Amino acid sequence: MALGLEASLGDTVVTTKLDEIINWGRQYSLWPFVYGTACCAIEFMSAAASQYDISRYGAEVVRFSPRQADLMLVCGTISYKQAVILKRIYEQMPHPKWVVAMGACASSGGIYDNYATVQGIDTIIPVDIYISGCPPRPEAVLDALIKIQDQIKGESLLQDRHQDFKGILD
Amino acid sequence: MNTTALENIKAAFPDATCKVVLGSVVLDVQPENIENTLSRLKNDAQFNCGLMLDVTAIDYLDYPEQKEARFFVVYTLRNWEDNLLIQVRTPVTDPDKGIPTATHLFGAALFGEREVYDQYGIHFQGHPDLRRILNHWQFEGHPLRKDYPIDKRQICYESDSLEKEIKARLAKKGVDESTMKDINTEVMFLNLGPSHPATHGAIRILTALDGETIIANVNEIGYLHRGFEKTSETLTYNQVIPLTDRLNYCSSMMNNIAYAKAVESWLGVEITERAQFMRVVLSEFYRVLDHLVCLAAALVDMGGLTNYWYLYNEKEAAYDLISRLTGARLTSSFTRIGGMYRDFYDGWKEDLEIQMKGIEKGVGDSLKLVETNRIVHDRTQDVCVLSGETALNYGLTGPTLRASGVAYDMRKDAPYYNYEAFDFDVPVGSKGDVYDRFMIRYEEIAQSLRIIRQALKHIPEGPVNIDNSQICLPPKHQVYNNIEGLSNHFKLIFEGVHAPAGEWYDGFEAANGELGFHFVSDGSGKPYKLKVRPPCFYIMGGFHKMVEGNMIADAVINLSCINIIGGELDR
Ligand code: SF4
């Protein structure tokens, strides 16, 4: 039985919280920006291709313009030469935005513990979900997507999540 | 190489010390003679070394044996028609002063010498554009020098504008400041990348345009430089194998095989016949997969998205076989020095046949869309033409070189693993345009499948690893049950395979061209130096030669059809 406003308006109108309705929309229409630099990007290609079909989760609209995307997938190694660009592109994405670090390299530098490689992109930009693996299987990419969707559910419009973030380039 | 060639070289360069290493000739010359030597090797018809494969340097700071100078620069040249490989070494007493450049002789030296400068800090007198290439411009020091600590990281705060470089290139093309400023002839600059869908990775392409036509182009690479060579120096020979997977990750196992082959050639081991056949089957299979990915992505760039599904789905299907065989999808690390990780599983032949049928169908479907398609023809034919001569000069190898009409294929011209016994053709292009670069890959897929089918018929039974406890890990039951097996295992894991002291180069026909490894060993279980000769690097070095004079949209499809893979390009 409907209560309050819904009771008087009948079942043509649904009332809900603004946060909830917007989060619901955001969850199922994530537009990824694939920051593919290395091997992990090939596994992302698989996640997007027919067999794993990322569109089942509403995230198939891969954008190559950061201004049209809200989910950044960093697939591959980030070197110091690249880090500036990564940061710049992250900043070009409008709020709200989420970041997934795909694979060992993006998460921690992976097998490249040397002078050229950034030891985890979370030293540059804030990261929401990490995927382990070198490279992770496409299922793991989908799993990360579901985790992001879950996370979005609990978020509020009024909160800026990464206000205090300070990376090495800030 | 035959003995007359060696006699000829000795006679022609009486001042140089000359020795033969693994069938290649190593010439030691003084810096003042380097220009002469290289020019003679290139232009003299009896040597005919038109292909400069690689330039690198060696830092002997920590080397146990005293050398006449700390640094040596090594040029690797090839006469592909007579299967003659020559390395020219020269000592560098003062790196800041350096040695004379070879850029006026070989276009390939433009990129090659820049890398040496970047990684070792050796100057090349007369090089037109000597600046960093792999490391960022704010980097200080030279990472491959032995006294550079491996974990000394340097942050880059700003990317390079490339303004000076593109202006220099424009000036070379006869466009000066006033033309650039004049409203009627004003030049527009357009930058693609490093993060751009057309670059399939991270490369930066800066163009100066007149309308839509590219007048000048300069490129910036190194965005995926992740220190492969420095890291390898800290690992044993077998531990490097996983790193080689990540060079050209579209055909990972081919790099494994090329690497293992290079080490084995120095150790003087001949792997078992079954392992040789396995390597042939697998490398041809991966060549097919590499070409599938390249074509799939390239056709998407042209607007043919359907092709992506036809071609990429076959690659995806192939992962079934690969994961059953190796346990991994992409980065398989399947070879070992002295053989393979393990034998094929039961029923692999049937699986492989199913995969090959699927690939043939996918390729057939895609070809039907492409072959007689007017749009494809108009967009690719006579576009970004590169002559065979220029291609050789810039050190191109593989399908991109063959598209320009040069039939150099190591499987025919410097065969290994019994390739001479297989019946296959080497397709060559007639024009050297984008169309040829596309079609050659389709044709190579067919040829590779042909080789696999022949190999399947003749693959012998037997072990896949050689029986040598100094090189191959003993079987597990020996490790657990007797002390000798245990100690062999222990020694191999901790110390690695001991390669005798020395230096050598070995090449392999990978999907993108000649993939070479240049080693320096100090006799320990870890390489003292390991330099990769990546085919992509030199292809990218000739990129401006292909696109200048063409339109900006042509540059995009040209980039996709030469299959630049970041891992291999920047290492
Ligand atoms: S995590 Fe592994 S597969 Fe992914 S980019 Fe790094 S090296 Fe490549």
Note down, in words, how this protein is organized.
The complex is a heterodimer of chains A (170) and B (571). Chain A has 170 residues and is of the alpha/beta class. Chain A has helices spanning 4-9, 18-27, 39-48, 80-92, 103-108, 138-153, and strands spanning 32-36, 71-75, 98-102, 129-131. Chain A has a single domain (28-152), classed as Rossmann fold (3-Layer(aba) Sandwich), CATH 3.40.50.12280. Chain A contains six helices and four strands. Chain A has a four-stranded parallel beta sheet. Chain A starts with a helix and ends in a 17-residue tail after the last helix. The model of chain A has no long low-confidence stretch (mean pLDDT 85). Chain B is an alpha+beta fold and 571 residues long. Among the domains of chain B are: 3-125, Beta Polymerase, domain 2 (2-Layer Sandwich); 228-466 and 535-570, Cytochrome-c3 Hydrogenase, chain B. Chain B has 22 helices and 15 strands. Chain B has helices at residues 3-12, 31-43, 108-120, 163-172, 177-181, 228-232, 241-245, 252-267, 273-301, 305-326, 348-370, 374-380, 388-393, 398-403, 410-413, 434-458, 476-481, 483-495, 535-541, 543-547, 552-561, 566-570; strands at 17-21, 24-28, 51-59, 71-79, 84-92, 99-100, 124-125, 188-192, 204-210, 213-220, 335-336, 339-340, 502-510, 513-521, 527-533. Chain B is globular, with a radius of gyration of 24 Å. In chain B, 53% of the residues are buried. Chains A and B meet through helix 3 and helix 4 of A and helix 7, helix 10 and helix 22 of B. Iron/sulfur cluster binds at residues 38-40, 76-77, 103-105, 110, 134-135 of chain A.
